[in-house]
Amino acid sequence: MCASPKLLGAPFTDEELAAWHGMLSLQAHVLREIDAALSRVHRISVREFDVLITLTNAPDRRLRMTDLAQQVMLSPSGLSRLVDRLQRDGLVARKADPDDARGARTALTDAGQVKLDEARTTHNAVIREHFLHRLSAEDLRRLGDIWRNFE
Q1: Rounded CA gap, 42 and 80, in Å?
Q2: Whole-prediction pTM
C-alpha cells in the first residue's frame, strides 16, 4: 500500500483529500464534544481526562513526567501546569522518582481513579453518540482493520 517515492509529495487526489479532511474534522468534532461534556458534568477537560487515563494504564498508576508528556502529546511545561491543577484538586500526586533523584513521577490518587471512573461513562457516551453509533457493525469491523494497518 506504499505510494512510490515520486508520488509521496504529489498533490492529493480528491479521494485522498476527502479521507484526510474527514478524519481531521471528525476528530476535532468528537474531541470538542467530549471536552464540553466532561467540563459540564465532571469539571475536567479532555486533556485532564487523557492524563488520568494514561496514568491508570501505567505500571503502578505512575509515570515519569517526561514519559507522561510524550504519551499525552503535551510539552513538558504544558504538562507541568496541567499536573499542578490536577494535584491541587487531589487527583494526582508527585512522587520522588526512585530511579532518578532529580526527577519526579506523577501518580494517580484514589480520588483521581474515582474521578476517572465517573468521567469515563460520559466520555464513552459521547464517543458512541458522535461516532460509533453512526457506523454499522461491518463499518466498525472494517475501520478497526484499517486502523490496525497503522500499528
Answers
A1: 21
A2: 0.86
